[in-house]
Specification:
The complex is a heterodimer of chains A (213) and B (134). Chain A is α/β, with parallel strands linked by helices and 213 residues long. Chain A contains seven helices and six strands, in the order αβαββααβαβαβα. The longest helix of chain A has 20 residues. With 134 residues, chain B is an alpha+beta fold. In chain B, the strands form two sheets. A four-stranded mixed beta sheet of chain B has the order 1-2-4-3. In chain B, strands 5-6-7 form a three-stranded antiparallel beta sheet, with no helix packed on it. In chain B, helix 2 packs across helix 3. Classes of the chains: A alpha/beta (213), B alpha+beta (134).
Chain lengths: 213, 134
Amino acid sequence: MVKNFFRNLLKKFKFNPFGKRSHVKLGLYGPPNGGKSTLANRVCQDWLGEEMNFTVSHIAHETREIKIKEQVSIKNKKGKELTFSLVDTPGITTKIDYEDFLKKGIKKNEAKKRAKEATKGVIDAIKWLDQMDSVVVVLDATQDPYSQVNITIIGNLQARNIPVLIAANKVDLKKANLDVIKSAFPQYEIIGISAKYGKNIEEFYEQLFKLAK
Amino acid sequence: MVTFQFIPFHDIQPLTSARRVNKLLNIVKDDRIVIMEGRLKKEEEADLIEITMEEISSKFKGIELSVIYPDQKRQDAMQKVKGAFAKVLLGDRQGLTIIGPASVVKKIEQNPDKIELFMNDSNGKRKLAKRRKK
């Protein structure tokens, strides 16, 4: 809270030492299965030339701990460079039931362990909010955006004065509806992407430069 | 049977953030659905999720949460001024917060004017709709 107060105060005087830190943290936040890890993999593949160990799955809560890739440098069309640490976070949710994992064919002990790890992952993701300099909220464009989890995540970022970009992912799917997301969060920059297939990804990188300003 | 418990704003207003969150969560853990006048602060909503995660067990699966709040874009200037004065004098008691145990409430769907609670029921799924007037 004290850090936020000084951050806001310094921003008012257009002096922000946090912006000049060598370790700018760009967080990927959102509900489970929105495609955060797929996007993290896409960024690393495009700019580091290597697939990351951000495992992806159709089963929710595949990412159960914070994962960081340091020193990711991207360039825009004008040749400007932006370097940041990419932080992939577990999906934030209000409920976790190990029986949901059983339905996906996971054995009971493993399902219970996975649920326990997932709860810890959500707690860590929330605690890490204060560490972020900028955040990309990754939403599944095929899902209803008016969930309270989405509103709570974005509201908390706003309360902390952390710049937000909303990436409406999975626009390659027929059910995707970018307009609904735009009407749900009209005050935010929203970009429709397909992290899996790279659709609109260049525009996404351009938006990252605006986010980091 | 589904039990709703109404929490008027004056019941939670004097409490600290931690006590507010704990009070609400304790009711939900008793398998009751909270209907609270007003809303929590953004940070309190995050705390509620965090504490819920800490409390998850084989019996308690978590919560369903939804907040319905007047759309300020639809308010005229006078309504906004009145709302701002009321907020200063009485606290932010606009809106409604609904919190239900995940074992009872399957899903809460929300759009700007309407909240729909989909209940977990032994006889299958049934739907309870709550509408809010503009």
